[in-house]
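Batch 3, record 17
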Amino acid sequence: MELSVSLYRYNPEQDKFPYMKNYKVKKPKKDIMVLDLLNMLKEDDVTISYRRSCREGVCGSDGMNINGKNGLACITPLSEVLRGNKLELRPLPGLPVIRDLIVDMTQFYEQYEKIKPFLQSDSKPPEQERLQSPKDRDKLDGLYECILCACCSTSCPSFWWNPDKFVGPAALLQAYRFLADTRDTKKQERLEELGDPFSVYRCHGIMNCVSVCPKGLNPNKAIGEIKSMLLTGTKEDKIKVVGLE
Amino acid sequence: MKGSTIWYLQRSSAVINLIYIGYVFYFIYSSELTFAAWNNFFYSPIMIFFTLCFFGSAIIHSFIGLWTVGTDYLTRRTIGFLSYRISKYADTLRSIYTVVFSLFGLSYLIVSLTIIFNNIS
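Prediction for the assembled complex:
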């Protein structure tokens, strides 16, 4: 049995417009990952371009749109995404395409940079590390695991429409990761940075981010918690554990 | 304006509108509806106050909603998904859209105030 793979192709040096190219592949006997299939295609057509690195869902570099849903090619089994032996692979939506499945992530990283993704503390740095209680550490579960693959932000219509103003689910999840960190002393400043009508409030709760996150995280819940903090203040006892989906 | 202020305005105006509409429907279905009964109900001082609150809330609610729609869908980027040529005029299109719905809001306010204050006997 054959698989029909439709692949988004675009080489700005050769093509005026992007196009979909069809490939026929013999269906493997065992279930393989989408990345393995791409590697098989690349053996025959070396011009196919995509990012990949760790091939085990840790580096987050092979995020792409697989049969209409964003995901990591390396941990997405073919059996889960095939529709009638057909597979359509496109780059992450909304970001400029550099070549084939490779997108320019600048906008995504600029939003990440905006939220200052590092611990800020007024207290003197200790000799070794800033400690916190296991209970406080638990508040970071479901937040720190994000691998910045951009699957969530690029599946979010609010991020498609306003990628320069809306911070996006990935960066907002990280914003809450530092707002929830008891060692961080710049909560008020962080919230002021996010207080405009676009940065957080442009989230309409569509929840595509939750649906596609390959790590099972819930950015929507974190965004809800940020909104609560913006609306009611930043008291420590109000910080809730977001957890995994 | 802060995002939180807009958030509160949008939710509180929605609650005011819901309570008002619910109250009006309750009046319509809970008693025999005659012109005299409606006139007495609608032009009582307390009802005039609530009606003004309703009209004010409706304008605030719709303005925020339509502004959100405009800043989501009438931007250079969003229109650019459909046509690059038209997307160059996105800011102008959004300004026209804002003026049009603001004029609608203004005329709505004038008509509603006229209905209330021209008929107070």
